[in-house]
Structure formats: structure tokens, C-alpha cells
Amino acid sequence: MGSSAQLIKAFDDAYEFLNPEIQKFRGDSLVQILSRKLSLQCQEQDQARLRVIGRAIELLASIHNAFAVSIPEAEIHDTERNEMNEDPVLEDTKRRRVIHGLLDLLSLEGIYPSLSQGVGIPLEQRVMSVLPTGVVAKQTEPTSEDKPRDEGLLHIIMDALRPIICDKRTGIQSIILGRILADVLCATAELAYQSQYLSQKKISTYTNLFQAVIDETPTPSLLPLLSSLIQKSSAPWFKTKISAQLSKIPLRKDGVFQTITFIASQFAPALGTNTETLSSGGPPITVEAIMQTSRLLSSVPQEVSADDYFCNIAPKLLSLLDGDEPDLRKTASYVIGSGILGKRAYGAPGAIGYKIFVKPIFDSLHGNMTNEVALWLRRFSLDDSALPEDALGDFEGEILIDEPKLFLSLTRLSALVLLHPNPGLLKRLVQPILLPLWGLKFYAKEHQKTLWHGKVFLLLQTFFSVSTGISKYEKLADNILWDGGCTWAYGPGQEGGISIRKRTDSRGSDLNPTRLMEKLNARVDGALELLSSDPQKEELAGDIFLHVGRQWLLGPSGEHNKKKQPERLQANDDLQSTLQKLVSAKFTEKLLNKFKDTLSRHPENILGIIEHLIHSEAALMERQKEEQLKIPSFRSLGNIVDDDDEPHARNTSEQSESLSAAFSLLSTILTSPDFSLSETLAPVIQRIKAQLDALLPNLPSPLVQPATTASMLLEITLTSSLSSEEKSETTTLRISGLELHRQALQHLSSPLPPIQAEGLSLLSRLITESSPVLDIPATLALLLSLITNTDSESSSNDEFIYLNVIKVIGVLASKHPRTVVKTLAERYADRSEQYNLDQRLIIGEALLRTVQELGSALVQDTARILGETMTTVAGRRGRKPSAKRVREELASNRPDKEPGESEEDALDREAANLMQQIDVAMDPEEPEDSARTAYSASIIDAWAAGAVSDLEPDDLRVRASAMSILASAFQTNIAGLGPSISSSSIDLALSTLNLERGPESAILRRAAVVLLLDLVKALDAAKEDGINLGFGFSYYTPPDFNNDPQRHPNEGIIGNIPVILRVLTFVESSEPDPIVRGHIRVLIESLEAWLEKSLLWGVRTREDIEEQPKFVLGDRLAGLDIHPRLERDEDGKPAMKGPRIEEIE
């Protein structure tokens, strides 16, 4: 640490101070031992502590000053305090330990005892001290006061440390903050916000110091520190201050990224996750981590406005959304889509979230270069700075939205709506830009821009698959040739892609008939392709046909005229009308060709068009006849005598074409083999028949024959003997259920999470309605395949879908409990070894959800199957020969096994050594060695190996999971499980605690204690509710009691409390795991409380509700099988029929 004599002397003094002869003063406190070096034996404890702390501060200051002056003055201003680039002198291990010892002394004997209750990190969670061996720091008793225990000492320490921390020279600042940063923050917060005696100037100084320390601490170090300071026992004022600082972390340069990384590290993947599938760019981000991140990042700090906050974090989120890391893109998409846009205050039109994330996309796709587009539609770095953009020419102002911005807009839109299932957000973002996406799709297709076409087509396909209703198809049908706005159109981009340019073509240039028909055919085929992928195509095909057929046959109605017409390809009103009829005719033709069978199964739509057309023609002819009668003329006299050569009816080509098509369609429907007359169609057919008969005399000669044929077919249909009255309603319901089921299956087969989520919603609806179209075993097998499929692209890897599937399984179990529970239990036990660990644990989660969903319905065979399977899996009766063979093959290739050592001995040795290693204090500044990694891998191997004494054991994690499921079942309905399962569970738990003592079995012992706790709680809850379960614990069982069938025949004994307490006391005395010991202590106290409450329950009233309550000893003590042999004589008085003690001479 330099050759300075002053520096050497400072370390020598500190080393001499910290190393007294402790062996001579065992039993004394650290302050008493160190005070002997300062000749302070006669002073009081507080004075001695003050002198010892003062001496430690002097030594620290001398070391800092000695080191600071050892650097040449010329280098002072060029040296940065960076703990990652420390001077090599500071790497001296011996001197570093001396500094750590002084800092630990200040922390453990100075700062920590002076803090008020609820401030700081608990002593057992702190970094282990490097003070001399034999010195143990003890936590002082908490006080009820909010003020510091010793504000004066705290002020002395921080007043001395502040000049060192704030010194501009390079010294030991990084070591101080690296060792006792938490204590410095807590002490500064005490003096700044909770001081009782300091002046306002001093308080202001410490307030600035508190903020300065936080601002200068790197984010990766600050996040875990602030999180650890927020405890349940933390003081309210302290929690408020720390939470306020924690909420401002995202505002830092790297705040968003570090927040996501930190939260991801706190939510580890499920046990047994294959590490090869994890992301290489950081910790794997689970769905819980994504949701927690969204809640944190979408919460605006109290001291910052929403506009400022989101303007700060938006570039950081957009940089992650535009990045290449899948997990980070998915997290950013969820934060923006659900956390920000999902809240009305931030995501509604005009709100700050809408302006940042939605409006730039909408404006760019509509060709509007607004301020939002210029500001936000560009790429950013993780520190919220905008990346430089390549200079691209705008071709003299012709390009409105250049290629990079348009492609970035499309990419962000895809990420927001496709990376996580949110059908609502998908509809909100795609519906307003449906026409721009439609025009962009066909421009990309016509110009062979494959990448662009693929992105747009996926967006449109997903939107049309998830959204419901016919409005989107009507919009496409009315604007099928849409290719841009009035002032803009799509054009080539600067880099070979697509851009949005000013429209320069003339209005008539695109009206070449051949090219127009090619474009029309392609676009109608594209619309029908989207309809084909829609799960509701059976229902929508008829509605679309009704819309386009009405426009073709009847022309645009008044309502249609009010709507906005297509903005292109119109030279005048006649051309527009003709073009619209051409589009409708082509659409109708292709619909009939592609969906002929579908339209035949739903004829009501076509019949509606025909009825409307015939009714319109009949009404028109009736009005013309009335007008002619009102205005007599000489011309009308000629009509007194009929003239066959001059038909009376109107004979225009347009009218003949419409009616001819209507009659043809009517004949086709009535002669179709799939057509059947139902109750809903019969009135329609009758109205068409009546209107057609009235229209026949006035029809022109070319239409008489097809109209007569149609009338005859209508008559035959109405007079035929059809049994439609009996089967119409049932058939309609069945068809509706089948269509819904087919839609659900089609949704579930999609690789896109939003569509799968919609499919699960439809399937849940069918289950809730108890639809007869469902095959329960097949449906359950389908749901299980969704969560157990090992394909990397399957939905089981998307936790949003995986959690929804488990929820649907719970709904299915509420309707069919025995089938679901039996299937899940068999697959969970996995006797044929078809599933791996992850799959079995996922099935276990589904089983747990099923148990919770059943509630009081968990009875009889369902409860018996569940209980027996769980006790079998949780016990040591499971045999997994295939898994054992795999483990033996891996063990034979392992190089670290000692010669002559068995597999069981090797596992015991590794587990014991590694459990010991984890208790050794690790210096946080030293790099993590391979011991911890080896421990993690080996303990997982030990879990997979199972009980070492079994021949073919099951995985310990599955056994622990089975105990947890069984515990939840007891909490749900212990009466349904009954005494047999309860007794077996108690034996199972006690045997596990008593026999499986290895360190790798700690998770089993924890689950066993929790199982006993939940069982006792369930018994207690039932007794408190006045439920007679018919079984319970016993304290003492007389030899003849169990053989007496006359006394309480429904009572059963599931366990003996003295035996249980004896086992638990023994296990507690030798249990190495602190969590198990804590649970056992709670369990023992619960059983003792059970004994006391049982005595109180025994003082009960008579069973006759008419008698007054009397506090007498009952026939037996409730909850205990203690049965005094008391009978009653004819007068109702107790009679002693058992053995009695008599005095004899």
C-alpha cells in the first residue's frame, strides 16, 4: 500500500489495536477487551465504548490520510474513485482485513446498536465480521422508542466518516462503502429524518449526505441494498424513505435494465429447469418476474409527474423492445402493453402513454409526420439516449415517412401485440390502422417485399382470428382496393424496402380494366384467406355474403351512402357505383365458390337477401301503379285493353339481372340436399312465397319462367312433411356448441399466445356451460398436452398460457371431479416413467389447482384416489428403475468419485461437505468461486437420486410436492379425506422426519412438518365450526376402549399426541436445518394448544337443547380419546361401573 512510513505506521497501529490477547479475557465483551489496550478498565461501559469507537475512527482517518497523501498531487485530480479499478496497493489482503476489522467494529459496536427499532438489516443477515476469533457480536434488545438509541454516538461516527466519504482525494472511500454501505445509509437516514437533538443545519447536512451516497452508488449495488432494507418489521418512516428512493431507480441511466435484471434474479425458475434452454443474455425471466417488473415500472413516484416519469423511462423500454434479446423484448412488451397502456390514466387517447407508444405508430402508418413520430419513432440506447440516424434523402420532399421509421413502426406494433397474449390490446392497436395495414400488405406482395409482407400478414391474421364481429370484413369489402390516403401512397424505400410518399398519380391512371381485375381478384382472395383462418368463419361467411350480396343485388342503401366511400379509383359517382357493384359481385362469386357448403348450412342469410330484393321490387311496382292511377291521361286509356306485346312491368336490364340472380340462388338453396325447413326458416319461406306470387303477374317475360320454378319449389318445401318442429331447437344448440368447440381447437393449435389464450377462454366457456359436445377425457388429455409438451416452440414454454391451462383444468375438475383427479393422479405418479421432472411438477400444479377448485366436493372416491396417490408418491414406495439406470450411467462417468466408494457414500459425502460450505462466510468483494456452483449442481443431483437407502427411489422434489398437495387437500376438506388418509399422512410425516435425516432430504422434512401443521389446523377449524368429523387425536387409549363398539362407533383415532410430541422433540434436538426446527417448534406449540382447547371443549352442555347448559364433565373430552367410565342410572346420576378405589380395614 505504498512505501510511505506514515502509511506503514497507520496500519501497524490498527493491527495492534485489533489483536489483543483475547484468550485471557474470554467472556468479556468486545468493547471491554479492546478498552484494556486503552487503559479504560475503570470507566463505565458507555464511556469505554465511546473511547474504543473514537480510537477506531482515528485509525481509519489516519489510514485514509496516509494513503491519500501517498499519491502525487498531480494525479489526485485524474484519479477516479471506482471500486472496479482500484489501485493495486489496495489489493493487499492483510491490510484490507485490517480496514474491514475497523469498519466491522464501527458497524457492530457503534452504528447498529445506535439505530432505532425497525431500521437497518437484521444482524443475522449481515456480512460476517473479520474481527478476531472469539469475538461475537450480539444484537441489543429492541426498544419501543422511535428515536435512535444513542444519537450522540451515531453523530460522532458519521461526523467522522463524512469527511472521508466526501473527500475528493482517492483513499479508502470505496472500501468503506463496499463494506458498511447499508450502515452508512441507515445512520445518515436516522440523523437526517429522525433526529431529536441536532440543529437544522446539521440535519440538512445529513440529508444531503444521504442523497449523495445513494446517487453515487452504482445501480447494481443499490437495488439489492434498498430491497433488503425494506422488511416487515421496518419502521414506517424508514420504509417510506427507502421506498421513495427505490421507486426512483428506473429514472437512472441504467435503471430500467438493472431493475428488470434484479427482479429476474429474485424469481428463480422452477426446480429442474433445463439450463440449456435458458437465455444466454442474463437470468431467465419468469412470468412472475415480468408481472412484478410491470407493476414496479408502471408505478409513478410521488415526487415525479407522470409525464416526466414516462418520458424518462420510455426510451429505455423502447430500446429493450427494439433489441434482440427475446426475454427482454417480452418483458418490455408486457410493461408497455399491460402496465402502461392497460391503465386508463396512462393509456387512454391523449394520455402520456398513448402519445409515446401508440400515436407515433398510428401517425406513421397514416403518412403523418407529426412531432410524436419525429421524437419517439427512432432507436434508443439503454441509457435513454437516441442513437444516430443514417442520413437518407427525402427526394425533394416526396417521402413523408422514410423506410427506417415505417419498418420500426411495424416492428414495434408486432412486438406489442404478439409477444404476450392480450386480445384487448391487439384489437385496440390494429383496428384503427386496419386499412393502412391492408394496403401495405398488398403493396409488399405486389413488389415482392417478403419480409414486410410476412410481418403485416401475421398481424392481420392474428387480429382477424381473435377479434369478433363482421365489421372488420365489411370495412375490407367496402374498401377492397384501398392503396393509400388522398395525399399519400406507398412507394419504394431508400434502402430497398417501402416508404410512404406524396401521391402523384392521376385519378384515372389505375383504371386499366385488365390490371383492375387482377388487383381485384388478388385482394378478394386475400380477404377470403383471412376469413379461412378465422375460427368463426362458419357464422361470418353468411353475414359477409349478406353484406356484399345486398350491395350487389340491391345497390348501396341510404345507410351505405352516408358512410365514407373509398378515396381512390373514383372518377365520378357513376363510376364509383359501378365499381362498387363490380367488387360486390366478385366478392359474392368467390364466396359462393369457396364457402358453398357453409352457406348451404346457413341459408337464412341468403334467404334474407332474396326476401329483401323481392319485397323492394314489389313495393316499387306498387308505387308506380299508384302514381299512374293518380294522374289520368289519354295515354293511360290505351291500357284499358291489355296488349301482350307491350308488357306492363318495368323491363330494365339492371332489374332483370338482380331478380334473375335472386331466383337462381333461391332454387339452388331449395334443391340442396343439406337444406331442411326449420321453425325459424318457415316464416321466411312463407313471406317469400307470398311476395313472389304477388310479383309474378308484373314480371317481364324473361323472368317469368325462373320465378314460376322458384314459386313451385317454395310450395313443395312448405307442403312437404318435415319433422323440423322436433329437432330444430336441439340441432341449433348442438351446431352452436360444435362450432364453438371447433373454434377453440383451432385457436389452441395456433403457435401464437394471444390466439391460444382466446381458445382457452372458449373452452372454459364450454366447460362452464356443461356443453354435451365435450369429450371429458379427450379434453383433459388435450389440456395436459399443452403444458407437458417438451417441444421448445410449444405453449408449455409460455407461462401465460401454462397458467391459463391450469386454470381451465381447475374449471373442468369442478364439473367432473373424479375423472380429472384420477387422470391427474395417475400421470403425477408416473408409474410407467413417461414424464420428466418438469412435467410431473406441472401436473402437480394442476392437481393443486384442482384440489382448491373442488373445495367441499373433494369426497368419496375422488378424495380416496387423491389421498392414496399422494401418500404413495410422498412415501418411499415409488419405484423408478429407468431413472436409476440413467443416474448410474452418469455416475459411472463422473471423475470426482473416490476409489472404493459406493454411490450412497459419495452422495452423503458430497451433500454433507456442500452443506457445510454454504455456512462459511464469503467475502462479497471476492469473486465467486466454483464451490457454490458445484454445490447447486450436486444438491440437485442428490434430490434427483432420491433416498439413498432405497433401491429405485423417486425424486425428492416430487415427493415434497406430493406432501404439499396433500397438505392443501387437508386444508380444503379434511372431512372428505377421512380418518384413513389422515392417519396414513401422520405416519408418513413422522417417518420422514425420523428416518430421512440426510442434508439432501431437508426439503422433504420441511414439507412433512407443513403437512402436520395443516392437518392440525384443519382439525381445529372443523372443531371451531362445530363440525363432528368422527375422528381426531387421542391422549390415552384404554386397552378395552377400541374393542367397545357401543361407545361412539363413528369415532376414529388418527394419532396419539404423546407419541407425536415425543418424535417431534427428538427430531428438533438433532435437526440441522433451521427452517425445519422453526416449523417443528410451531407444531409442538400447536399440539399443546390443542390439548388445552380439548379440555375446554370437554366442558360442554347436554345434547338435549331444551335443557339449560351446565358446566359438568361430559361423557368424554372432545378432541381426545380420554373416556372416563361414567354411566348414568335411571335417575340420570353418574354411576361408577368401572373399577373403583375403596377403603378397607
Write the layout of secondary structure elements.
Elements: H1 5-18, H2 30-35, H3 45-69, H4 73-76, H5 93-114, H6 151-165, H7 173-193, H8 200-216, H9 219-229, H10 236-247, H11 255-266, H12 287-297, H13 306-321, H14 326-340, H15 344-347, H16 352-365, H17 371-376, E1 399-401, H18 403-418, H19 423-430, H20 434-446, H21 450-466, H22 471-478, E2 488-492, E3 498-502, H23 513-532, H24 537-553, H25 558-562, H26 573-594, H27 596-601, H28 604-630, H29 634-637, H30 653-670, H31 682-695, H32 701-719, H33 724-748, H34 753-768, H35 776-788, H36 799-815, H37 817-829, H38 837-854, H39 860-874, H40 881-892, H41 903-917, H42 930-945, H43 956-995, H44 1002-1024, E4 1031-1034, E5 1052-1056, H45 1057-1070, H46 1074-1098, E6 1099-1100, E7 1112-1113, E8 1126-1128, E9 1134-1136
Parallel strand pairs: 4-5
Antiparallel strand pairs: 1-3, 2-3, 6-7, 8-9
Helix pairs in contact: 1-3, 1-5, 3-5, 3-6, 5-6, 5-7, 6-7, 7-8, 9-10, 9-11, 11-12, 12-14, 13-14, 13-16, 16-18, 18-19, 18-21, 19-21, 20-21, 23-26, 24-26, 24-28, 28-30, 28-31, 30-32, 31-32, 33-34, 34-36, 35-36, 36-37, 36-38, 37-38, 37-39, 38-43, 39-43, 41-42, 43-44, 44-46, 45-46
